[in-house]
Protein: MFS transporter
Amino acid sequence: MASSLTKDSVQPGTPGSGKTFFGHPRGLATLFMTEMWERFSYYGMRALLPLYLVAPAGLHLDAATATAIYSVYLSLVYLLALPGGWFADRVLGPRRTVAVAGTVIMLGHLTLALPSAGTFYAGLGLVAIGSGLLKANISTMVGHLYDGPDDPRRDGGFTIFYVGINLGAFAAPLVIGTIGQKVNWHLGFALAALGMALGLAQFLLGTRHLSPRSNVVPTPLSDREKAATLRKAALWAAVAVVFYAVVGFSGAYTLNWVMVPIIVAGLVIPVVVLARIKRDKELDPTEQSRMSAYIWFFVAAAVFWMIYDQGGSTLSIFADGRAENSIFGWHFPVSWYQSVNPVMIMAFAPVFAALWLALARRGKEPGTATKFALGLILVGASFFLFLAPLSIAEGGHKAAALWLVAIYFVQTVGELLLSPVGLSVTTKMAPAKYASQMMGVWFLAVTAGDATTGLLGVAGVNLDKMGIVALEATLAVVAGAAVWIYRNKVKQLMGDVN
Structure:
C-alpha cells in the first residue's frame, strides 16, 4: 500500500528545509555515501572480473570469451534496472527497494568469494539482480530531493552524486584489486561484500533525511494484479528450469546458452520498451514530443557506452599482457587502471558543475544535445588514440602505461559531458506515468551498448584488433556529428526542458 504524505512527514534535508549538504538537501549526503560504498563493492569486483576470467589461477578463459562474459554481465546489470524501477513503482517504493537491493548485492559478493566456478556465476547473477534493483531507484531519490525539474541546483546535485560514485570507484581497485591480484582472488570478492555492508548500514541510518516521496509506492499493484504477476513469474521460472534442465542433461550445455539469450534481450528489450512508451496514448502531446527527443539521447548513449565500458574489459586485458604497467620504474597491478577514470571524475566534475552554472547565469550554457554530441566525439577519439598502443604492441613491444592513461582521460571528459547530464535530463523528461521506470529506461542504453559488445565477443571477434577499434571509433564520431547537426530539431522536441 502506498504511504501517505502528511504535514508531519516532512523531514529535514528535503526541499524547503534549512539544513543543507554543500548547498543541497541533506538527503543528498545519505545517498552520496550509500552510492559510494555500493560502487566500492561493484567496481572493486568489476576491476577483478576480466583479469580473474583470463588468469591461469582463475577461470583461464580466452580474451574473447572473457570480454563476452564481462559485457553480458554489465548488460544484465543495467537491463535489470528497468524491472527494478517497476518493482519500486508498483510494490515497495524506492526507499525499501534500495534496502532489499543492498542485501542481495552483499550476498552476491559473498557467493563470489566461494572458490567454485558454479558459485562464481551464481554470485554474478545475484550482484546483477541487486544492482538492477538499486540503480534506477537511488538516482530517482536524488531527483526527489529537488523542487521539480526547474530547480537550478538539480544538475549540480547529480554531479555531486556522481562524485560519490567515483570516490568509491577510485578506492575499490586500489584496495580490492590489489588484494585480489596479489593475495587471493576470492578474498578480494569478500572485501566487496564488506563494502556493500557498509553502504547498506549508511543508507538505513540516514533514511530520515530523504524526501518523503522516496517512501511512496506511486502506483501500487491491486490484489488481482499481484496474483496475476506471481502466476506469470512462476510460469516463466518453470519454463526456464525445465529448458535448462533438458539442455544440461542432454550434455549440450555451454555458457552461450545463458549469454546469448541475455544478449538478445539486451538488444530487443530497449527497442520494445521505448516503442511501448512512445505509443502510449495516455501521454499528452508535450510528453510525446519529449519522448521523441529522448530517443536521440538514448541511441547516442548506447553508442557511447559500447565503447566506454570496454575500458574495463578490452583495455584491461590488453594491459594485462601487452602494456608496460609501470611509471618511472614503479610497477602496479593492472586493476589499478580502473582507478584512473574515477580520480579524474573527482578532479573535473566540480569544474564542470561550476562551469555549467556560470554559463547558465550568462545564458550561454550548451544544450543537452550539444553536450551529448561532444561526449560521443570524444569517446570515439579515445579509440582512435587506442590505435597507437595497439600498433606498438603489434610491433612486438609493450605499450607505455601513459598511453592507457591518456585514453582514460579522453573518455572521462566525454563521460562528464554525457553521463550526469543524461541522468538529469531523464528525470526532467520522464512522463509522470513512468516516474521510476524512466531511470531504468536510461540504463537500458548501457544494456544495448554492452549487449552489442557481448555479441561481438560471443561471435569470437577480437575487440583489440586495429580494424575493429577504428570501426568503433568512426561509428562514435559519426553519431556525435549527427546529434550536432540535428541539435536544433532535438531542442524543439524537448520543449521547455533545458
